[in-house]
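Hi everyone, sorry if this is the wrong subforum. Our group has a chain we'd like a structural model of before ordering constructs, and none of us has done structure prediction before. Sequence below.
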Amino acid sequence: LLELVDAAEATVVMSQAAADLLTRDYGVDATRIQIVPYGVSDLPLIAPDTVKPRLGLQGKAVILSFGLLAPGKGFESMIEAMPAIVGSVPSARYIILGSTSPETVEGDAEAYRAALESEVAALGIAEQVKFVDRFVGRVELGTWLEAADVFVAPSLDLDRTVSGTLAYAMGAGKAIVSTPSAYASEMLAGGRGRLIDPGSPTSLAETITELLTDTDLRAAIGRRAYEHTRGMVW
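Answer:
Right subforum, don't worry. Here is the predicted structure as tokens:
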């Protein structure tokens, strides 16, 4: 990495967290680092209830995660949190949108998805958790984001310095609940989201329930996220 940086006129990263990593751990001169934020779609800030009927989710409190399925994403913690959430918000539905990661060994990938589905069945929440097992394009992804009340990023990888899913959700003005990765800690600061303990179904359940039952709080957090990302729009 240092050889590449030395050979280049400049190094482009997508977050301050990544720039700090290069200067702190690799000794890269900060003047040779350029930050270009992750780009996001220009979605309108609209009420989720106006979009939910398109996806058959009218009357539901929609919690969304999207991205390629792979171990370490923390989806099992969110599934474990769902019975407590549904106990307080019976209309809650958790959507896991995305296909299995092609970078995961095929057997591991199938085993992970099967484990998640088994957990859903064991908890008796098949009606409350939906897997959309396919890759979706930009337009359809925008529809899912617009329909979501809360976006959750339960990843266990706290060293991540960029997350396209988190950036997209902020760009859609969602109230976001995330584990404190380097990127999430940077982007959700200033009341732009909620950070929760990694691998903690209890923390997830308490935070998401609070957001689902407080419309004004949810809207305020989402609006701050939306405004913060206007400079990131393609």
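For your construct planning: The radius of gyration is 18 Å. The chain is about 40% helix and 15% strand.
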